[in-house]
Amino acid sequence: MISFIGRRDKGSAPSGAGLHELLQGYSIEVMPRTAAKVEDFRSLLPEGTRVYIAHIEGTPIEDMVATAKRLSEDGFPVMPHFPARIIKDRATLEDWIKRYQNEAGVDQALLLAGGVDKPHGDFHSSMQLMETGLFDAHGFKRLHVGGHPEGNKDIDPDGSTKMVDEAMRWKQAFSERTDAQMAIATQFAFEAQPVLDWIARLRAEGVELPVHVGIAGPAKLQTMIKFAVACGVGPSIRVLQKRAKDVTKLMMPYEPTEVLTDFAEAAVTANAVPEQIHFFPLGGIKACANWAAEHGATPQRAAV
């Protein structure tokens, strides 16, 4: 049984418990350039919040490691991205792992294919990174992988989910034959039901990895649409498109209250609910953290 900081154990459901229960123990994603704008993370995030660090193509590894070190020294569990397609070779991968470990005390990672069309080197998938055995060899205890409830046209150009589903079954098998603690962190979506249906389908196919559902934090509608298109969000983008047609709502910021309430209130089996919420703070880290606190997440800590 896998448990998470401030969260329920796998298998218990938040159905009917409301936003407060659902938001406990959320994680959040930052980039070096967005993290640099935050003066004190301890005044914003609940103690123990897992912070993912997105590695965008062109970001120097030095900036990534420095951000990881800062957050780790502030007491937050840090999970940097390892995008396979921007990693040149095995030696580069091992160098990154060692630097995160030795300089920032990192022992967990999110493994992704990465958002580039052409690999920069030897790797093109997260499975190849896992197969190197380097994360285990260097003491990484937790490995998360990406999930795409609405499909991924980079992986399945025909619009199906064949390759995505096959990869997820492989990752389930990997978790069973190794000691890695694993979970799925999904792309953000704007409707709950397609994600709940996807989780139920995974369970029916024997994939039992905990699912951390991606949610876009509050942001201007125009900003949200821009990121949704850039990130390849699927059919649930219609929620934004419908809102954009309403002149009375056009200038109002998007907030994830409705979609999160749907997750919290969904009448689904315990196996088909998200284990945790993962925020993409598209409107800013501070705005997202404050929104979460206002809607029932663990009270903010005083600055120290």
Our count of helices gives 13
Which oligomerization state do the chains in this entry correspond to?
single chain
Question: How many domains, in number, for the residues?
Answer: 1
Record field, number of beta strands? 8
Percentage of residues assigned to helices: 25-40%
Question: What is the general shape?
Answer: globular
Low-confidence parts: 1-16
Give average pLDDT, whole number: 84
CATH class: Alpha Beta
CATH architectural type: Alpha-Beta Barrel
Strand content: 5-15%
The radius of gyration is: 18 Å
**Structural class of the helix and strand makeup?**
alpha/beta
Task: State the gist of this model.
The protein is of the alpha/beta class. 38% of the residues lie in helices and 14% in strands.
